[in-house]
Amino acid sequence: MNTAHSTPYHSGVLKLVDVVVNEGDAYSPDTGIFTCPLGGLYHFTVHMSVNGRAQCAVFKNGESLASVYHTSLPDKCSQVASVSSVVQLSEGDTVWVNLWGHGRHEIIATEDNDTVFVGFHLGSVSSHPQSAVMAYDSSSTHGRPVAFTAKMNVDDSYPKHSGVLKFATVLVNEGGGYSADTGIFTCPLDGLYHFMVHVTVYGRGQCAIFKNGEMVVSLYHTNLPDKLSYNSSQVASISSVIKLSKKDEVWINLWGRGRHDIFATEDNDTIFTGFYLK
Known about the structure:
Layout: E1 12-13, E2 27-28, E3 33-35, E4 40-50, E5 53-60, E6 63-71, E7 79-89, E8 94-99, E9 107-108, E10 116-123, E11 147-151, E12 163-164, E13 169-174, E14 185-186, E15 191-201, E16 204-211, E17 214-222, E18 234-244, E19 249-254, E20 262-263, E21 271-276
Antiparallel strand pairs: 1-8, 2-3, 3-8, 4-7, 4-9, 4-10, 5-6, 5-8, 11-13, 11-21, 12-19, 14-19, 15-18, 15-20, 15-21, 16-17, 16-19
């Protein structure tokens, strides 16, 4: 994002005009839109520097896929909020970062503080049903990927249990490794995988990425009320590359006692995503 485009007042497409890499020339800094040149699975992430309030989403063909609402009020300190998703695209489909809501969006960029939109191709989509485990030709760069993105249901907000956090709304599940019923990803293919979780927190959130019952990486995020009893919605993210063997299990694990202030709304997502690397 260019410094001159900080704190936009408009809704709609957020243009990120300073292009670092654009292999394939699919992203247009003039429009802020990525136009798919090759059908398949892609992974998109947006990292926003926020100094107040920010509302945006990753859009595909005019529909919201993954949305975030982050506030750093009342002190208006600079914070970073992120959201990502695996997306299935056909040639000609469009993806962009979309601002929603009214008034000024306090999304900023400075020489030392960037707002970034990034995406890359994961592989071709299988013709098999998502419930089937696919064969992957590791000797070919055109092998079919294993990838998923799942979102927390609104009704599952503010869980009071410890253990597995379920993400019941599945956007993509290529390879059939993720189970919405259990919240667990079961590895269908040996290799390296990248996993990321974005949790929307309104108070206190404690969770970790687990592999086979052992913690890999963990986060603890609080935005508890101050003296003015002000509370705000914020996003906390964590990720890891994990080496897996077939049938290894990965999930998001809640830890600690009492209610977890992790939630989802129609415009504010909590997301678990992962994909095969090599």
